[in-house]
Amino acid sequence: MNTEQKLIDLINDFDTAMLVTRGEREDLEARPMAIAKIEDDGQIWFVTDRHSGKVSELKADANVVLAMQSSNKFVSLTGVAAIIDDRAQLDELWNEAWKVWFPDGKSSESITLVRVRPTHGQYWDNSGLSGIKYLIKAGNAYLHGDRPEVDEKINASITM
Question: Could you tell me the pTM of the whole model?
């Protein structure tokens, strides 16, 4: 498996991502977002309120970072976001749990989609057998005063 496919496979393990945008004062703003869909090429879809601060931030600067983390898997993506008004796509993505934020359901006029096209990604996967092998390498490196070698099964940086 190539590193880009490994990254996309890891992304599919997450249902939430921290979306980082640039705020009005050039500060960075982060907020958790439920992932609506992950495309085969790594594009990620979110649903949000068109009147939210993140939408105005994305209109001013579409460059974003997505960060995802579990106890032993970590993904960071840099990409470009777009606000998409597509009712057919919304119908396909709709999740009834989102009525918490949109009481009128998918017919709410305030719903819009955010699509992030990743341009660069990094992952660290310390799960399963790869994680155990890494722990052994790290232990040996520690005993010898060295740094452990890390292979692409555990860590890689990818331009997409």
Answer: 0.84
Q: Give me the domains of the chain, ranges plus CATH numbers.
A: 3-125+152-159 (2.30.110.10)
User: Half-sphere exposure of residue 44, counting CA atoms within 13 Å on the CB side?
Assistant: 32
Does the pLDDT value for residue 128 go beyond 60?
no
Confidence of residue 160 (pLDDT cuts 50, 70, 90): confident
How far apart CA 135 and CA 157 sit, in angstroms, is: 21
Number of neighbours of residue 86 by Cβ within 10 angstroms: 12
Which 3-state string (H, E, C) describes the chain?
CCHHHHHHHHHCCCCEEEEEEECCCCCEEEEEEECCEECCCCCEEEEEECCCHHHHHHHHCCEEEEEEECCCEEEEEEEEEEEECCHHHHHHHCCHHHHHCCCCHHHCCCEEEEEEEEEEEEEEECCHHHHHHHHHHHHHHHHHCCCCCCCCCCEEEEEC
Is 153 in contact with 125 (CB distance < 8 Å)? yes
Tokens of 40: 């085969």
Characterize 120-151 residue by residue with b for buried, 16 or more Cβ atoms within 10 angstroms of its Cβ, and e for exposed. ebebbbbbeebbeebeebbeeeeeeeeebeee
